[in-house]
Amino acid sequence: MINRRRFLQGLGGVAVALPFLESVRWGSRATAAVPTRRIYSMFIRQGNGVQQAGYGGELERFWPKATGLLTKGSLAVTDPDRTLAILSDYGDKLTLVRGTRFGFPGNGCGHSGGLNQCLTAANLTGEGKDTLASGMSVDYFIASRVNAPGIEPLTLMSGPQSAYLAHGLSYSGPGQLRGARNNPFAVYSNLMGLAGSPELRQQIATRRKSVNDLVRTEMGDLLGNPDLSTTDRDRLDMHFQSIRDLEVGMACVLADDKVQAMQDIATVFEANEHRIKVADFMLELTALAFACDATRTGSLQIGTGNDGTRYYVNGVLQNTFHRISHRIDSDGAEGAAIPNADLLHHGIDKIFAGIFKRFLDRLSAYPGPNGGTLLDDSVVLWTNDLANGPPHSYGNIPQVLAGGAGGFLKTGQYLDASTPTGMTTHNKLLNTIINAVGIRNEDGSYYDRFGDPALARGVLGAMIK
């Protein structure tokens, strides 16, 4: 048998996605557990909630004015003053979901509790800032089923690792918090297999060889497999010829200037001034990893648990985001009011919307494996560990999704997941994403049991075509 991931990984980490070959067995993983289509997923976390209605008479500045149909450009016309208008170009590819909530209280620290539940939908252990999730996160769950054995999800962060609350998004199991990587150049070097190899780095940087050249030996081994049928040989010949025109620089490496820009901040990537730049780099690398099929899922945490980044709003370096979210010049419950803090929070939300949009731009620039763009074959979630600022509420968590997951999701809509009895726990949203990437129950029915067993099972049917 052939280890598929080992074959796909060529010199310098270049990956070649092969066509389905009927006569080759790819390894020991049970066929039923592997989705039949390549669908990618990414989870992007903003902290400190968003500026939405519900506190102290603050106006609504995040959600569109009305639920219903979204089309390309419509948000810029109907809701130009709202944060999500920044995503107007992708209106027909968006799914906006209000009315979800976390299932459990924060055990003394809203930031830690929300961060731990964000991708796990699990109850908490511990108290205060030291809480941990009692279950696996959705990125790790998906990776264990759609990635080749041993390939973990990308677990990324833009921000310092040493903080009151640092990373807390990705879990491999109960209490098993996974480390997040926050140096873009190190992430790129690892993806390319270039760590400690200046010679390989130079070879990739100059882009002298095509993808086929970099995997020539392993390609020859595959073509020499006596189990290959004539049909499979013809498929391979056609496949390798078609990708001959896709040079490494187009598919599996970044442009030299971007690599240099990452290297330029390789010792200062945690600095406040680079928070947005690092987030953009990490999402650039995510799009690259997806395009090369190096992994099919991942997460990015922007800022620490109670994001203390000082962002520029209207050209002015503001107070920390955490204090702006409190509306006072304090990290606690008492302090002098920050003038126009609600407007400043809205300005920071728009920064995050811009980061998200640029990621959608990158995914749209790559061809997808199923005939459209990479965005069409992905589902991307921009979420939060809180709903809003001062209350630090766990109700009406902002959930912004993009991409149709190969046609599984019904896009171009803004929907309310609330029921007559209240908001829906967000495990159902995560279940829907799990199904969108192709994972099902053993009997072929929708997977509906991710998250804490105390939560009601199910999916959000309104999201599905």
Notes on the structure:
With 465 residues, this protein is α/β, with parallel strands linked by helices. The chain has one domain (4-14, 27-194, 272-463): Alkaline Phosphatase, subunit A (3-Layer(aba) Sandwich), CATH 3.40.720. It is built from 15 helices and 14 strands. The strands form 4 sheets. Strands 2-13-3-12-11-1-8-7 form an 8-stranded mixed β-sheet, with helices on both faces. Strands 4-14 form a two-stranded parallel ribbon. Strand 9 and strand 10 form a beta hairpin. Helix 5 (184-192) runs parallel beside helix 12 (275-291) and helix 12 runs parallel beside helix 14. Mean pLDDT is 88; it is low at 1-17, 24-33 and 244-250.
Provide a brief overview of the structure.
The protein has 465 residues and is α/β, with parallel strands linked by helices. 31% of the residues lie in helices and 12% in strands.
User: What is the number of helical segments per DSSP (H or I, 4+ residues)?
Assistant: 15
Mean pLDDT score, rounded? 88
Low-confidence stretches: 1-17, 24-33, 244-250
* Protein structure class: alpha/beta
Fraction of residues in helices? 25-40%
Strand order of the largest sheet: 2-13-3-12-11-1-8-7
Biggest β-sheet description: 8 strands, mixed
**Structure summary, number of beta strands:** 14
Q: Give the overall shape.
A: globular
Q: State the CATH architecture.
A: 3-Layer(aba) Sandwich
Overall tally of structural domains: 1
| Beta-strand residue fraction | 5-15%
- State the oligomer: single chain
Could you tell me the radius of gyration in angstroms?
22 Å
Classified by CATH, the class is Alpha Beta
Order of helices and strands: HEEHEEHEEHEHHHHHHHHEEEHHEEEEH
